[in-house]
Amino acid sequence: MLQDWFQELPVITRTYLSLAMVTTVSCGIELISPFQLYLNFHLIFTRFEFWRLVTNFCYFGKFGLDFLFHMFFLVRYCRMLEEGPGFRGRPADFLWMIFLGSVLMLLICPFMKVHFLGSALTFMMVYVWSRRNYNVHMSFLGLFSFTAAYLPLVLLGFSWLLHGSMNLDLLGIFVGHTYYFFEDVYPSLGGKRWINTPYLLHFIFGTHRTTEQPQPPVAAEPHPHAD
Question: Measuring CA to CA, which of 63, 96, 112, 173 is 20 to 30 A from 89?
Answer without folding.
Answer: 173
